[in-house]
Amino acid sequence: MHKRTVYEHNRVAMCSQKRALCVATVVLAILFIVSLIIAYAGPQTDCPCAGEKPTYLDEHGRINRTRNIIPVATNNELFPWNNVRLPAFARPLRYHINIHPNLTTLDVKGQVTIDFQVDKDTYFIVLNSQNLTITDKMIIADKKNHRLSIARLLEYPPRQQLYLEMKDKLRKRVNYTLVMRFTTRLSREMEGFYISSYKTKDGETRYLATTHFEPTYARSAFPCFDEPQFKARFKMSIFRDRFHISLFNMPIINTEDAGFYMGTGLLRDEFQESVEMSTYLVAFVVCDYQHIRAETARGVSVAVYSPPDLLKQARFALDTATAMMDHYERYFNVNYPLPKQDLIAIPDFGVGAMENWGLITYRETSILYEPEETSAASHQWVAVVVAHELAHQWFGNLVTMRWWNDLWLNEGFASFLEYLAVDKVMPGWNMMEQFVLDKTQPGLNLDALTNSHSISVTVQDPTEIEAIFDTISYSKGASLLYMMEKFLGQDTLKRGLNDYLNTHKFSNADTKDLWAVMSKHANHSIHVKNIMDTWTRQMGFPLIDIKRDGGSISASQTRFLLSPEARSPNSTVHSLPKSPYDYKWYVPLTYYTDISDEEMVWMNLTDVKFEIDPTASWFKANVNQSGFYRVNYDADMWKALIDTLKKNHTAMTPTDRASLIDDAFTLCRAGIVNITTVLELSLYLREEKEHVPWATALDHLQTWARFLSEAAPYRLFLEFISHILEPVATSLGWEDTGTHMEKLMRSNIFASAVLSGVQSTVTEATEKFREWMEKGTKIPPNLREAVYSAGIKYGGVKEWQFCWNKYNTSRIPSEKKLLLRILGVSSDPWILQRYLLATLDRDRIRPQDIKIVMASVSSNPEGQLLAWRHLKAHWKDLQTLFGNGTFTMGSLISSVTSHFSTQYDYDEVFDFFHHIDVGSGSRSLDQSLETILLNIHWVQKNEEPLYSWLNGKVRYRSSLSVVSSCMKQRSSSLQGFRS
C-alpha cells in the first residue's frame, strides 16, 4: 500500500535532491566495481585480443578439453567437488539393483541400494550418474536403521557426477546404505543400457535390451562409483515379461510373479550375488534367445546364447570356450571363481566383444561360425576373440588395473594370451607366426608417429580414456609381453603371472606390481622394472643400426620416427614430449647367421659391439621379430640378405622373412632405405609359398598403391604387383583344400590378384561369379572374397544389386560382413555414392558396420573423394549417431583420410577439422594428419625413382602385356586394394 504513490499512473514519483545524489553515487560505484571484476577476475583470453590465442583452443586451434573451469550444478549452485575423479574416502561394499526395462516404450525404472563406508568423517559423498532422473533418495545408518537428513543433492553433467551433502557427518568405519530411485530411457547408441534388435528368418523384428559399460557407461544405467578401483559385490533383480529371459553376471536363483504393468504380467528374476568386481564389468540382458550348454573339466557351466535360428552357428564357440577355460585354469594355476560362464551374441555391438565377468557379450561375427559358409580367416577370428575375452576373466576381472592409465595391463595381456591359447588349442594354426603379423607390425606402424603415446599414459576425462583403447594399448602391449617372455623364458613368465594373480585377486594392481613379481621369479638376476619402464613410460621404440666389419658387429640405437623432419635434431615441426630415458631403451638384441644359432646381447640404454664368425655370409637381427624394434643394415648386409632370399629363401624362417619385408618397406617409407632396395627384395616373392611373408608384403604393397593412385607410376606398379603375384596364384589352385594356413593364404592371394589385375585369376573368378549368380553354383568359403570382388569390380549395377540382395537375406554374420566389404570395390562412382548414402539409414546398414563401408569405399581410388565428401557432409549426423565419447569417430577419420597423398587433400582435412571438437577422436585426427604429410613426402621423393625402376624392367613388361592391355581397356575401373 505504501508504494501506491509510486506505481499509480495518476501520481508522480519524487525524491529529494540529496537522495537522488546518493542513489546516483551508489549506482556508479556498483558499475565501476562490476567493470573491475569483469576486467581482472574473468577469463582473460576468451577473446583473442592482440593476436593472443584463447585458452579454450589447443596448439592446433581446436577446443582444449583440459581447460580449467568452475563447475556449476544444474540448479546454478556451485558444484563443491572440482575434480573429474571421485574422492577416494568413500568406498562401496555392495550394490543391490532393481531394474525394469520396457522394451516397447524404452522407459527404464530402477532402484539402486549401495552399502558403503567412508574412511574419514565427512559431510558429503560424490558418485557418478549420467542421464538419470533421480526420483527419490535416502541414506540409512545401518546400526540404528536411522534415516539421515540429506541437505542437498547437486548434479554436474559435464563430469557425470552427483554430490550428496548431509546435515550431519558421516562417520568413518560405519556402515551406511544409500537408496536411490531413478528413471531413464534405453539408449539407441551402443553404450550404457541400450536397445538392440534382430530379424527372424521370417522377417519379424525382435527386440532386446543389453549393456556395454566399459569404460564409463555403468553410470548411465544406475548411480554408482564408476571407477575401476571401487570394487564391490552386486546383487541384481530384473523385471521382465513372460516372453523374455534375463541374464546377469551370476546365475539366476529365483523367479516370481511381480504383478501387471500396462496389461502385461511381469516376472521378477533374482540373481546370485557376485564376487567383488568393478562397475564396468557388470552386465545384464533381457532377450528372447535360446542357448546351448557344456561344462568344463571342473564342472563350470559354459553356455552360448543367440537368436534361435542362429544357434547352430554357436557350437564352435561353445567348444572353444570350454577348452579355453580348462587351458587358462592350467596356465594360470588359478580356478575360475564364478559358477558359470555365458557368452551371448548381440546384434548391435560397437566393439568386437566385452569381457563382462560371467556374461561376455560379442558382436555376432565374433562368436558365430558356420563351417560350410565361413572362411578360415573368420573361423580364426572367432577363436581369437573367444580366447581374448576369456583371458580377461583372470587378467582384468580377477585382477583389475587401479586406473585407466594402466589399461594396457588388461588389453595387452589379453591380446598376448589369446594367441598363446589358440596356439595351444589349435596347434596347426601357427598362431605365434601370425602374432607378428597381427600385433607386432601394427604396433610398430602406429608407434612410429610423433602423435603416438606411451603405454602407461595419464588419463582423467572419459573422452581421454576412450582414446587409449587403441593399437598401442592392445598390440604394442602384447608385443612387449611377447618380447619379455623371450628374455625371461616361458616358465618364469607363468610363475610370475600365477604369483601376480594370487597376490592381487579380487583387487587392483598397477604396472609396477607386475614388474615386481616378474623380477622376483627371475631371481632378481634381471631387473624387469628397469628394463620394461623404458618401454612403457616413453612412447616410440628404437631403430637398431647394424654395421659389419668382418667379424665385428656394431649396433647403435636411436628413436625411430617415420617423419624425417621429426628425426632431425634441429626440427621445430614437432615438439616431442620429454622422455625420462631420453628415448633410449634396454634392448634384448637377438641375432643369428647362416652358420650360427640364435644368440642375444643387451643394449643397456647404449650402443654395443660384439663378434661373430667372420666366415658368416649373412647376419639377421631381431629373430622372428620377437623384439619391439626395427633393424637397419649397412648396404652390403642388405645385399647379402636379399641375395640369400633370392637364392634360397627357406634359409630363414617365414617370420624372419616377414620381418625383413616389414623393416625394408617401413624404412623406405621413412626415407632411410632406398626404394630400389625394397623392390629388389620384393622380387623374391615369386618363389614365396608361406602366408605370413605374403600377408606382410601385400599389406605394404597395397598401401603403396593407394598412395600412388594419382601418381605417374601407378599403372606400372600394379603390373609389378601382378608379376610377383602370378606364380603363387597359379600354384595355389582353385580347390579350397589344404591346411588352415594354406586356406588363409589362398584367400588373401586370390583377392589381391583380382584387384591388381592378374588376368588368369580375374578370368576364373569372373566365371565363377557368373555361375553363382545365374545357376546358384556354390562358392567355397575361402574363394568367396576373390570371386565376389571380381563380380563387383568388373561388373555393373546388376552384379552389385545381386550381392546387395544377398547381404540383406543372408543369415550368416561372417558372410554379411564379407559382402559389406566387397560392395565397396565397385568401379562405378554412382554405385559407390548410393552405397555411402545407405549408411545413413540404420535399417539398411547397422551403425556398427558404417566403418566397414567407409573404409572399403575410401580405399578404392574411385571412391576416395566420395568417402571424404560423405564424411564431411554428414559429420554432424555421424557424431549424433556415435557420440563424441566413443572412439568410432576417430577410427572413421583414420579410415577415410589416412591414404591421402596430396597437399590439397591435407589442407582440406586440416581446414575442415580445425575448429571441430572431435572428442576422443582427437589423437586419431592428429595421427591422420601426420600420416597424410608422410604420404605426401614419400610420393614426392619416390615417384620418379619408382617410375624409372619399373620402366627399366623391360623383361617384366613383355610378360605383362596382356594385363596392361586389359587395364587400358578398363582404365576407369582401376583401383587399389582392400583395406
Automatic annotation (TrEMBL):
Predominant subcellular localization, coarse grouping: membrane
EC main group: hydrolase
Cofactor dependence: Zn(2+)
Cross-referenced InterPro entries: Aminopeptidase_N-like_N, Aminopeptidase_N-like_N_sf, ERAP1-like_C_dom, M1_APN-typ, Peptidase_M1, Peptidase_M1_aminopeptidases, Peptidase_M1_dom, Peptidase_M4/M1_CTD_sf
Compartments where located: Cell membrane; Membrane
Boundaries of every Aminopeptidase N-like N-terminal domain copy: 92-281
Listed GO MF terms: metalloaminopeptidase activity; peptide binding; zinc ion binding
Cellular component terms per the entry's GO annotation: cytoplasm; extracellular space; plasma membrane; side of membrane
Domain ERAP1-like C-terminal: 618-932
Positions of the Peptidase M1 membrane alanine aminopeptidase domain: 316-535
Annotated site residues (Transition state stabilizer) in this chain: 474
EC number(s) reported in the record: 3.4.11.-
Pfam (any one): Peptidase_M1_N
Cofactor note: Binds 1 zinc ion per subunit.
Active site as annotated: 389 (proton acceptor)
Residues bound to Zn(2+): 388, 392, 411
Any one biological process term the GO annotation gives: proteolysis
Keywords: Aminopeptidase, Glycoprotein, GPI-anchor, Hydrolase, Lipoprotein, Membrane, Metal-binding, Metalloprotease, Protease, Signal-anchor, Transmembrane, Transmembrane helix, Zinc
UniProt keyword annotation of Hydrolase present: yes
Record membrane topology: Lipid-anchor; GPI-anchor; Single-pass type II membrane protein
Record-annotated membrane-spanning stretches: 20-41
Family: Belongs to the peptidase M1 family.
Protein name: Aminopeptidase
Organism: Nezara viridula
Lineage per the UniProt record: Eukaryota, Metazoa, Ecdysozoa, Arthropoda, Hexapoda
